[in-house]
Amino acid sequence: MNEPDLLTFERVTAGYGARVALEDASFTVGAGEVVGLIGPNGSGKTTAVRVASRALRPSAGQVTVAGRDPYALRAREVARLVAVVPQEMSPALEFTAQEVVLIGRSPYLSPFAGGTLHDFRRVREAMESAGVAELADRPLGELSGGEKRRVILAQALAQDAPVLVLDEPTTHLDPKHVLDIMETVRRLAGAGRAVLAVFHDLNLASATCDRLIALRDGTVVANGPPDELLTSALLRLVYGVDAEIQVNPATGRPAVLYTLGDEKVKRS
Amino acid sequence: MTTRRGAIAVLAVLLVVAVLLALGLGTVWIPPRTILRLMAWKAGLAGAPADVPPSTAVILFELRLPRVLLAVVVGAALGTAGAIFQALFRNPMADPAILGVSSGAALGAVAAILLGGGVLAGGLMVPAAGFVGALAVAFLVYRLGRIGPAVQVGTLLLAGIAVAAVISAIISLVLSFSGEQIRSIYFWLLGGLGGRGWDDLTGIVPLVVVGIVLALVEIRDLNAMALGEERAAQLGVEIERFKRLALATGALLAAAAVSVAGVIGFVGLMTPHILRLVLGADHRRLLPATILGGAVFMVLADLAARSLVPPEEIPVGAVTALLGGPFFLYLLRHERKAAGERA
Predict the structure, then answer these.
(1) Do A55 and B221 touch (CB under 8 A)?
(2) Complex-level ipTM
(3) Is residue B190 within 8 Å of residue B317, measured between CB atoms?
């Protein structure tokens, strides 16, 4: 491994009360890598995100972010190391896009939140990266769903954290916006960040990620590049679905073709 | 953006105008020019104005000025407390009076006065006891309103209203049994600035200054809290500690206001809400604007309270409730419509 592992899970077990949601999970995400977490609902994907972002302390095992234990640091220090792009965010509709992104600078701001020239420069750069620079003065309430998502992405980028964690960042978006966001994410990884992203859409995961981690019932069942990991057998094991894998001729990446139950007869 | 920055300046000018108006109006009209000349004289910048009768100076400096300044301080405190509670509960209908925090402060203050604490600790005993009452109610209502990970808006408001009603009843009972007059019960439950003087002002100014400084220090985290607790934590806010600090700040400001003015509702509700519509929700602007706006609102409401039916005085809480009640109902309807559209 040439790249340092910016995010590591070592035999991590975590859960809510008596319920174990993630068990004995070990994996790493290196600098420059986009790693996708896949698995059915309740398989532990969001739990992994929460563990990585200091929101859920593991009951066993060790998580490190940029070589440090987030649970031994203050929230502010962790926010400089890991930026989360949440699935949903409270609609802060009366803030302008720029104000929302400036809140992403919170880990660096003084308590009065004034913001230095450096903060505002980073805000502008983050907004440019996410393609929302021209929306700066628009209230969030006036933006479309896709624009809002990109503003939230910009907010996470403004945190200047080496590790970026995305929890289903593209749900409810149309393909154009989805691809825009994924291109931005890959560019960020290219610039040396480590990206861990939760996916429901396997084709999107395949198209975006360098490596995939498949979870089932809280345990890691497979970990590898999309072309090795995405097989009919694995999808049956993890999701219990019938699917055929073909190769996208344009990219060489695997593409998942689903087969519905009532059409299985025709096939055979 | 320039209009948004200009709003602070506009509010500052409005405050000066409102103060001059409130100082001038009354049984004797004192024109702004005379007010300024008298102030210059008091400040040692000019000689005594020969054409102004001494009684005018007495009215200005002994009756009106302390009362108007008290309105400024009480309004600033209530507005700021409202802004903090609204951000903390992520609910535009939170306000120290609606949440019952002001009633808690009133009960604390009444208890301290009846137990003879009015003169203890240099007069600070009343606000201190008020602070304890306000803090207790703030935490109680917060606990009651919280179901699972989120504060439920409806539950929170109902909890606050129920707690406020119970406490108001206790205050009435305590005051009745202690032989206090109906008038003083009125005072605590509906609020007023009548009969207050310089001592009351100097008593609460330090508390309000501390509260406002704390509020300004909370700006960054209040903004992050607007995005939800989980997101705020991801952005580096130590959630539990911050919530305790912000609740205590709101309680301190409400207690300081209540200890001299009784329970005055709706200032903390309306001021931040209206200013948010104009300025947006960013507390870097909203909080300073609310400090000024609360003061303007309170000065004008108190002016109305003492001038609408002279020589009688309406409790100022009745004036703010007359303005704020309909506003609250409108908000409630608006919120429910918005919630319906989201669902």
Answers:
(1) no
(2) 0.89
(3) yes
